[in-house]
Amino acid sequence: MIQLNGYGWRHAGRRAWAVRGVDLHIDAGERVLLLGPSGAGKSTLLAAVAGLLPSDSGESEGELDVDGRAGVVFQDPQSQLVMSRAGDEVAFGLENLAWPRERIWPRVEEALARVGFGYPLDRRTSELSGGEQQRLVLAGALAPRPDLLLLDEPTANLDPAGGELVRRALSSVPTMVLVEHRIERFLDLITRVVVLSPGGGVRFDGQPSVLTGRLGAQLAAEGVWVPGHPMPHRPAAGEPGETLAAYKDVAVRRGEALVVTGPNGSGKTSLALTLGGLRAPLQAGVVVTAWGDRPHRWRPKVLARRIGSVFQNPEHQFVTSSVRSELELGGTPVARVTELLVRLRLEHLAAANPFTLSGGEARRLSVATALASRPALLILDEPTFGQDRRTWVELVDLLASLRDEGHGILAMTHDPEVVHALADRTVAL
Amino acid sequence: MAKLAASGLLSVVVLTSRDPLVLGTVLAACLAAAPFFGVGPKAFMQRIWPVLVACAGIVITLALFSADRGGTTLLHFGPFLVTTSVLWASLSLALRLLSLAVPAILVFASTDPTDLADSLIQHAKAPARFAIGALAAFRLLELFREEWGMISMARRARGVQRGFARTAFVLFVGAIRRGVRLSVAMDARGFDSGLPRTVARPQRFGAADAGLILGAAVLAVFAFSLGTR
Fold first, then answer.
1. Rounded Cα–Cα distance for residues A11 and B188 (Å)
2. Do B158 and A319 touch (CB under 8 A)?
3. Do A92 and B189 touch (CB under 8 A)?
4. CA atoms within 13 A on the CB side of A96
């Protein structure tokens, strides 16, 4: 089905090869998990197999031969949905492949039933949860009966319930290549593991059982979520101090980590924005803080010195054109800037544009910017969202030590591991 | 599609006429037809109010500042002089704007964007690349409104004021990324691969559509004849 001989690809304008020296043969009926640290070229390889690398966008070497047609599912459902009604969305791919009309609609129903999509055809796609949207994307990819399904981190943007929906929908797909960091839920699905090496070539190719051995430990250290490798547990070192901010029955104290959980759409983000003084409470009630009431009326400068907020999408927070000037904003002393650059492993990127950073780097920078003016309270919305294991561990360590230095930490998350590793107290919405 | 053609016909009449009788006829006919388009009074008011504000603005500015000062004086207050001819001129301009806006509002308030794109492809032979691309972009627009709010709040969290240009820039960077990702996803599903496509939702150009265009034509001719009499 797929045959790669010494395959390599270099994006136009880059010096380094994104992927190189890959020899791989995949047969029909195989379900392959493609692993490797960030930057090993997993996504590029997937795009190449999908035929999504136009020859004018870079340079290739070696041979790539795909026998059959591939369906592709990417990470973010929002940037894959084309139509505003569910049925039209699935029909879109069939129209493109010129299926006759009388066969389109029966096939749409069939594909939706196969992924367990339980809404009528005219359901608005914008009213679906992330997990449901991703199932719809999957139905769209499966509808034209592809010979092979390619999946690039299909559950990274979803909460656990959404991820489970996608996993169940995938269990009937015969041939697939899957790139995923959080692999535990897919382990019973896959028949083969291929690990790419960042320097080029294939480092390992074989049975999934290998992940329990030494290679598994190595991969875990490099950022892959290999099951069976325990995560750190960081309970508070001391007793919590005075209350820093409170709204309704949620109160954060100095020196404690409060974790608010709940599925997508339960109001976690809204609570974070309200407690962070970024907008007026949507319902009745007043936000009370250690510095006075109604933080949404404070001037931005004053607010940033008292409460730091880290948004789910780090890029929303970037306001300058280099990592260093992001931290210098608002007159942060040079010593503090250097300290933060070192602490969050960003020194080598000081001159880089914040918008060019990788997911993990952008997350570290957004935390660093919130810390620059030493706020007593730090509020984070889904800080571990889409992060690899290595960045995850660093983040939890950092938040735990900030708490032990006397900061109040409030984290909104649907990640049960964060609760286990960090929470001194939990509130479920 | 038929709706677009019908409202286009009426616009031609409105643009070529200044006669309040002509404009009033078009306006009255459109308002009377509104319930048949399934546009309720609430949805209609939601869309028409900016136009009404603009109309009021036109009347007030023109009535107060127009150079043409003929006719009988209606009001003389300090430097302000309002005469009948000025008032008529400004009212007819406002009426023109209104009778241009109402048919267009009826069309867009009662048409699903997907149906419009389908119809453009099937009847007006618009390229699918353009019509479906616009449809996908339209869907992203809804997301941008949310995103705008988030970026402004994120700026506040950083201790800076909500600057319009910078917020727009961040939104723009995100929009390009999202657009690129979406177009790759569309390519992956065989969109615009140079092969002919089929259509899943045939848009029939039926008797009702022909009737609508005919009705608009009759109304246009009738209104026009009122004006030339």
1. 19
2. yes
3. yes
4. 23
Rounded Cα distance between A358 and B226, Å, is 68
Q: Three-state SS for A162? A: helix
- What does the pLDDT look like over A110-139, one tens digit per residue? 999 988 888 999 999 888 888 889 999 999
* DSSP assigned state of B197: -
The rounded distance, in Å, linking the Cα atoms of B52 and A382 is 45
Mutate to test the interface with A, among B138, B147, B189, B198 (most CBs of A within 10 A): B189
DSSP states of A383-420: TTTT--HHHHHHHHHHHHHHHHTT-EEEEE---HHHHH
Nearest-angstrom CA–CA distance, A252 and A273: 14
Put simply, whether A358 touches B (Cβ < 8 Å) is: no
pLDDT in tens, A143-193: 999 999 999 988 887 888 888 888 988 888 889 999 988 888 898 899 999
Would you list which residues of chain B are within 8 Å, Cβ to Cβ, of chain A?
Answer: 113-114, 132, 135-136, 139, 142-143, 147, 150-151, 153-161, 166, 170, 173-174, 178, 181-182, 184-193, 195-202
pLDDT per residue, tens digit, chain B (229 aa), is 677 777 777 777 777 777 777 778 888 887 877 777 777 778 777 778 878 888 888 777 777 776 666 667 777 766 666 777 777 778 888 888 888 888 887 777 777 788 888 888 888 888 888 888 888 888 887 788 888 888 999 989 988 877 788 888 888 888 888 888 888 899 899 888 778 888 888 877 778 888 888 888 888 888 878 766 5
Q: Which two tokens stand for residue A199?
A: 């320097």
A243-428 CATH pick, 3.40.50.300, 3.40.50.2300, 1.10.340.30, 3.30.360.10: 3.40.50.300
| Minimal C-alpha gap between B119 and chain A (Å) | 14
Residues of A in contact with B182 (CB under 8 A): 79-80, 82
Q: Nearest 5 degrees, angle CA B178-CA B179-CA B185?
A: 90
Q: What is the ipTM of this complex?
A: 0.82
Tell me if B157 and A78 make a contact (CB, 8 A cut-off): no
Closest chain B residue by Cα to residue A91: B200
Contact check, Cβ <8 Å, B181/A74 = yes
* CB-based contact A183:A151 (threshold 8 Å): no
- CATH fit for domain A2-222, picks 3.40.50.300, 1.20.140.10, 1.20.1730.10, 3.55.40.10: 3.40.50.300
